[in-house]
Amino acid sequence: MNMITTGRRAYLRLLFCFALVCFALTSTAAFSQSGGELRFCLRSEPKTFDPLLVDDDSSLSIRYLTGGVLVRANRKTQDLEPELAESWKVSKDGKQITFKLRRGVTFSDGSPFSSEDVAFTMQRLMDPALHSSTGDAFRSGSGAVSTKIIAPDQIAIIFPAPLAGLERLFDQVAIMSAHSPKKEAAVLGPFLVAEYKAGSSVLLRRNPNYWKKDSQGHRLPYLDSIRLDIQSNRDVEMLRFKRGELDLINVLDSDYFDRLAASSPGLAHDAGASLDSDFMWFNLVASAPIPEYKRAWFRSANFRRAISQAINRDDLSRVVFNSHAQPAVGPVSPANKFWFNSKLKAESYRPDAALKRLQTDGFHLQNGALFDKGGNAVEFSIVTNAGNKPRERMAVMVQEDLGKLGIKVNVVTLDFPSLIERISQKFNYEAAMLGFRNVDLDPNGQMNIWLSSAEDHAWNPQQKSPETAWEAEIDRLMRAQASTADPKKRKENFDRVQEMVAEQTPFIYLVNQNALSAVSSAVGGANPGILSPQTFWNAERLTVNASTRASR
Amino acid sequence: MNAARKLASVVVVAACAVSLGANWLAPTGYAKQFREVPNAPPSHQHPLGTDEVGRDRFARVLYGTRISLLLAPAAALVSTVLAALVGGLAGYLGGIWLRLARGFTDLFLSLPWLFLLITVRALLPLNVSPLVSVLITFLILGLLGWAASARVLSTSADALRNSDFVLQARASGLHGPRLFLVHVLPNLKPVLYAQFWISIPVFILSEANLGILGLGVAEPLPSWGSLLRELEGLISFREEPWRLVPLLLLIVVLTSFQLLLSNEEVTA
Known about the structure:
The complex is a heterodimer. In chain A, about 35% of the residues lie in helices and about 20% in strands. Chain A contains 18 helices and 22 strands.
């Protein structure tokens, strides 16, 4: 009996020890993920480390990794999530937002975070002398933006006029310390800039005071450091990734993607249609040095719509992007879940309908060539930037598609400065093909394109007053959506803008490229999405397994 | 003529002949897009496969060779004539004319060529057909490429000016254009030929450089430059070796020109 009891006790002890070992192993599982260095490339030198002056992709990446924000748009769900602010409330008139801040948070240098820092950041951001493009998004009307510190953990920010989608704008505002002598080097984000070698690399190290913890109570981020090599050559970037020297490629061309998918299928990620779009447009500027009869073609919505119908977007997506693109519908990609007008469909390829539409405007075919009612052969040039191979290929395919309608298209590739000079200053061009890299989900991010007075109103910029009734209507709708805080009303107005753009076709939208990226098998926790930064939006939860990297 | 030069002549003549027969050898043409088979490997229908938008690469190589081989010599002719006018005359006249011409050619040679070409290309009218654009591209190359040849010619003409037979001709009462045309120019011929042959591969490569930047011959017309652009991003030669054909052709033809050129230089 005793022996049995002793044996049972010994067995129970053994079981207990085994359970303890198991517990220890599982509890350290998260820590075994901790540590390591993530490596990827910036494609250009960061122009600034001041989070309020950021304007280029590389600086944006660094700001994303180092800056602490009050609210963050989840790059996967597109929902707004609390960060340094536990909660927020926008006033009914849309002029004031009140934040309740998280307590016990400190900057990387140990200085405490409070509403004073938010007030300091907003005052600096809105200082006209700073010329901050992030600040420009907050300028709702004449008058100053003011802040009211209600408590150390509560602050109200008051704007002179209603600002639509106000809370989302704070996703871009990295809070700076009001008191730290380190200025922008004191950060609230998961990483801090530890070393910068101009032209070579930026080293980010874990912020020891980062406030966020995972569900098991472990302090984030898991990574020790991130090494960002400055490398503009994409061939070199891909070679280094294949060799295992890099862990991520944030944006990948379709050619590279397919090659990688063929050799290492698990490393290439296609997250579906992105927010980016490629499109072409005709020059509608009244003073442009182009013949009057051509101006008349370009100004006809029928002509523009016919050209749109004569372009085979399915072929563009399949041939140019190896099916890693979707035919574009309009100014909003279907990937933008809330703002996309789901009633609209991409223009389908209908050359017969296009020809009929042209015939209603007096165009006619003669010996395979298209002529207008004045007897002028229909011929125009499309300018695009040299060196962008997908765009050059698209232009060549559009050339052939329109050739089937008897239209002669001359494709002209120009170096980028010459192209910009022609399309924005001299207006000495007929049609152009370019693309938008859209990072903002909100239609306010497109105000600079749709307002007829705007500089980026590409087909006819900086109009003193709208030259056409439809442009006046788009102006009205865009201003209306921007001046109300009611999302439903905003959506109605912007849906109508999208419908008008489809009817008038000032831009002939071609494709939305897919968000393609590459993630090494050594990286854990990656979940590439369509919104920038595609691969490292959850950098604080990424891990790197050095042994997996070494075995690649 | 040794065996290597004979082989080089055969290669150049064969390349010219095949490219001139492109219409018969590749009846599908260089522009037709077979969109169902982009980036296809070699097949019976497409001996060198298809390019990114499904155009027959064999046809494009033939037509591209025709353009580069016909227009590069034309551009070389333009530049050699200009070099003869500037360098030859300055050398013959001597004195301040020679110093001025040398200063001008030195200045011209010091210009950043590639940027100059890009600027001139950007200033051209947009609505020109691909054929006109290719003519303009090579004309620009010809008009901008005379300086190096002019420097060589001015030195040769300067040497001729002080030669015994020219002095004797002068002493016999021969002056001005007649002396230049009858005694100086015929003696410059070997140098002119050499400069002409040297310029051909230079212009082929210049067009290829412009093509690689996307600023060469307008689409859909092919040239060696635009064909070489396809090699951008080619990580492994083993993946699609047929894409190397334009590069190999360029190397073979340029080497042949160099072999022929060395013969001309010996003559010069």
